[in-house]
Amino acid sequence: MTTDVIAEARERLFVRAKREGLATVGYDVLDSPIGPLWVAMGPKGVATISFGREPSGHELRRLIRLFGPGIVPDRRRTAPAARELDQYFAGRRRTFDVPFDLRGITPFQERVLRTTSRIRYGELMTYAAVAHRAGNDRASRATGAAVGSNPIPIVVPCHRVVASDGTLGGYGGGLDVKRYLLAIERTEVPAGGWPKRGSPREDLRS
Amino acid sequence: MREVAPARTPARTFGELLERHEREIFAYALRLTGTRADAEDLYQETFLAAFRAWPPPRRDNERAWLYRIATNRAIDGARRRRGTVSVDDLRLAAPERDGVTVLDLANAIRLLPAGQRAAFVLRTVEGRPYREIALTLECTEEAARVRVSDAMKKVRAAMR
After folding, report:
1. Do B40 and A20 touch (CB under 8 A)?
2. Domain A107-205 class, CATH top level
3. Which domains does chain B have, with CATH numbers?
4. Does A191 lie at the interface with B, CB-CB under 8 angstroms?
5. CATH architecture of the domain covering A3-89
6. Structure ipTM
7. pLDDT digits (tens, 9 = 90+) for A57-115
8. How far apart, in whole angstroms, are the C-alpha atoms of residue B29 and residue B73?
9. Which of A49, A134, A145, A158 could cysteine-pair with A111, CB 3.0–4.6 Å?
C-alpha cells in the first residue's frame, strides 16, 4: 500500500471528522535543528510542543482532558506553526503570530507562563523576576516548576528564564537546547552571574 | 505518535488508533470493494464510525473491532457500490499469501456477496485464523469455515 494513497484518504477523512466535530486537535512531528518536535494544534491555537517524536503521557492526558480523544495526525493544521518555527530557527522571526492555548494548567502556572510569554526576543529574566511579575515574590521555586511545566516551549519562551546566579537553570529539552535557542537570539548570560534585584550591581547600573 | 504504547494497550486517541491500523484497514477495504474509490469510502466510514462509537469496547481488541465495523459497513453498503473491480487498484493491496492471485481476488469480489467475500478475503488473502474470522463476522467458527469453503468453491468454479 503506497503512503500517498493512505495520505489522501486520510486527508478526506479529516475533513469529514472535523465537520462532525470529531477531530479537535491536529498534530505533526516537525524536524528542527534541536531534533524532532511534536506539535499539536487545538481549536484555539498551538496547544503543545513536545521535544521528541511523541508527547509525554502527562501532556497527552492534558490534551485528552481538554479536547477529548479526537487528536489526529494532521500536517495541514500544524503548517502555520511549522512555518513560524522554521523561520525562528533560521533567525528570521522574533515573535510568533500563531496563537497559543494555555488552558489545562493551574491559574498560577498560567500567570507565570503569560509573564514568560512577554519576555522579548533576545532578553532574559530571572525566575525571581518572573515570580515578582506573576504577583508572588516569594514563590521563586514554584515559579521554576511552573516555567518547567510549560506545555508550549519556544513559542512561550521559557528558555529566556534563567537563574539569578547566572547559570541557565533548567530546561525541559535539556540545557544544550536552551543554550542553542539563546544563541539563535544572540543572548548570553552575563559572565559572573545575573544581577539580583536590589543588588549593588543593579544600583551601579541605575 | 507511532508506537506510543504497546499494541495491546488500548489506543488513547483517534490518532493512535489510526496510525496503528489505517494501512491494514485500507488494504482490507480495497480487497473487499475492488476499487480505490470504494475502498476510500469504506475506510472513511469505518474510522468515522469508530470515532463516533469511542472508546473501543474493552472486551475485545481494537483491531477486531475495526475489522468488524469495516465488514458490517461493507455488507450494508454493498448495494450502493458500483460493482466494478479495478485490477490496477487491487494491485495496491495485492494478496499477502502465496497461491492467491490478484485475479482470484478480482473474481471473488465480482462473484461473491459481501459477507462471503469478507470470509474469503480474511482467510484466503489475509490468512487469518478461523477464530478471528468468526469474531469479525460475528458468527461461530463453524459457520465461518462454511462461509470460507462456499466462497472458495464459487471462485474455483468460475476459474474453470
Report:
1. no
2. mainly alpha
3. 14-159 (1.20.140.160)
4. no
5. 2-Layer Sandwich (3.30)
6. 0.84
7. 999 999 999 999 999 999 999 999 999 999 999 999 999 999 999 999 999 999 999 99
8. 10
9. A134
